[in-house]
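[step 3/7] inverse_fold.run input=structure_tokens len=147
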């Protein structure tokens, strides 16, 4: 809870100060920078800049994962939260996306005229193995919002 409160404080301060904060982000060397409209995957802690636009994405982690394990029958499918740090036009935002929405598809967020969609989060929970926080990989799709 303290970490969330601290992040919200940083965001609020940066908004009050005209988005003067910056997120130290560099593309990973082993992954070619994707373009808007192309799906891409990130491991926890990995970050990249989208090619041709001023948008950088960092996969901060999975603060909560209550998805039903694949080898169990559950009444509810469960949900996982994916935390992303986004940097656009010298502004930093923290966006949390969910694996399950009422429509049954991944969640979407918006920042600076871009729509960020959660396509997939792996690995999927299983009762016989624990997922370490650094084991997650997220697949995202960034598109430009219609004017």
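[step 3/7] decode complete -> sequence:
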């Amino acid at each position: 809870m303290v970490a969330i409160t601290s992040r919200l404080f940083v965001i609020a301060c940066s908004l009050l100060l005209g988005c003067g904060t910056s997120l130290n982000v560099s593309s990973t060397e082993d992954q070619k920078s994707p373009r808007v409209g192309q799906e891409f995957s990130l491991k926890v802690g990995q970050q990249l800049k989208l090619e041709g636009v001023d948008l950088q994405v960092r996969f901060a982690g999975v603060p909560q994962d209550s998805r039903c394990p694949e080898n169990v029958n559950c009444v509810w499918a469960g949900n996982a939260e994916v935390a992303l740090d986004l940097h656009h036009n010298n502004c930093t935002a923290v966006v949390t996306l969910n694996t399950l929405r009422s429509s049954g598809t991944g969640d979407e967020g918006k920042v600076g005229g871009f729509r960020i969609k959660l396509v997939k989060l792996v690995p999927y929970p299983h009762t016989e193995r624990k997922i370490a926080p650094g084991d997650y990989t997220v697949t995202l799709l960034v598109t430009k919002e219609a004017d």
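[step 4/7] annotate
Confidence is low (pLDDT under 50) at residues 1-18, 20-30.
The chain is about 10% helix and 40% strand.
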